[in-house]
Automatic annotation (TrEMBL):
It comes from the Bacteria. This is STAS-like domain-containing protein. Pfam families: DUF4325. InterPro entries: DUF4325. The lineage of its organism: Bacteria, Bacillati, Cyanobacteriota, Cyanophyceae, Nostocales. Residues 18-78 form the DUF4325 domain. It comes from Hassallia byssoidea VB512170.
Amino acid sequence: MKHEILTLIGKNCITPGDGQKVYDLVHPELLALNAVELDFAGVEIFASPFFNFAIGQLLRDIQPETLNRLLKFSNLNTVGKQILKLVIENSKRYYSDPDFRSRVDQVISEQANTQ
C-alpha cells in the first residue's frame, strides 16, 4: 500500500501529532506483514519529532529486519533521509536496551518537571 505524505500531512512533516497520524495508518498494515510505501514527493520540511512518532515507535513491536523489508520510502530528500536514519538508530537502541531506555526516560521526565 502506498501513502502520499503530502496529501496526508502537507509540505511540513514536523509535529508529533502528524507523525502519529502516519503511525496509526501504517502500523496495522505492517503488523499484518503487508508492504507499505511512504511517498514524500512534495514534502519540504522534516523534523525528528515527526519521524519519532511516525517511524521510531514502530520498532517497539516490529523487528528492524521486518521493518526494513516491509517499509519503503520514496522521494525523501537528503535532509529527510538524514533525520530518518538518526531516528531509526536511536529507536533501535531505545527499544532494545532497557538501561538506555531507562536513562532516556529519566532525562525526559526531569526536563518535563523543570518546565
